Amino acid sequence: MSRATSPAPPGPALPPSAVRLLLGAGILVLWEALPRLGLVPELFLPPLSQTLAAMAGSAGDYAAHLLLSLRAIGIAMLAACGLGIGLGLLVGSIAPLRRTVQPLASGLYAVPLVILYPLFTAWFGIGPQSKIVFASLYGLLPCLLGTMAGIQTIDRQYLTIARSMRASRLQTITRVLLPAALPTVLSSFRVGGALVIVGVVVAEMLTSSEGIGYLISRYRTLLDSPHVFAGILLVVLLVFLFGALVGQIEHRTAHWRFATRSGEPG
Questions:
Q1: Where are the domains of the chain?
Q2: CATH code for the part of the protein at 48-256
Q3: Mind listing the pLDDT tens digit for each residue in 76-105?
């Protein structure tokens, strides 16, 4: 009588970092191979090697415009994420105010703000001011909404203890609400910051005469696909670097977090 064989145990799963690395390598290989094999016209997708060569050949031009974009992104991110998270903590801690502001902010967030960009250029001109204000508003709303949503997940017992200790509203926000809602706050910061980068680049593509978005738009009109994709690659790398920075902040502030359960602060 034959003995039943037990199935072999599954092999060790690849860690997420290895999966991301393999996926990224596969995308880069396809980027080089598809146009080389003629499967995609090079006008629509130039090979990766041509894109990198175009970036290296115009490195000075890209660096100068990238610095201008980074300046606008930095100012807009401070305004959007700083103001959005600060207002979210304040408004989220006051239930009547939150119930008024949250539907209004959600409705405004549903509006594609890019259609309002001509108004920003009319109000602030076509210089850096308009793109900074536009990108700030573009990233402010997700930070505001995400922070308010995070406040609503905090256990009311924390607020009760803070009140019993006669903590001021500022102390309650900085020492109770912010640490308790930190995972949601950082998630909203990740989304809002990425939208700030996109907002600056989109504004530069529409009306600006400087920045990475302007270079992408200029080379697009010249049908210079390698230079267009070089600019796009820089924007993608910028977003990835920002995501990595937020990941480091999440790792370093992990000790701030304490368990929360659903509860609505009064």
A1: 48-256
A2: 1.10.3720.10
A3: 988 888 888 888 878 877 778 878 888 888
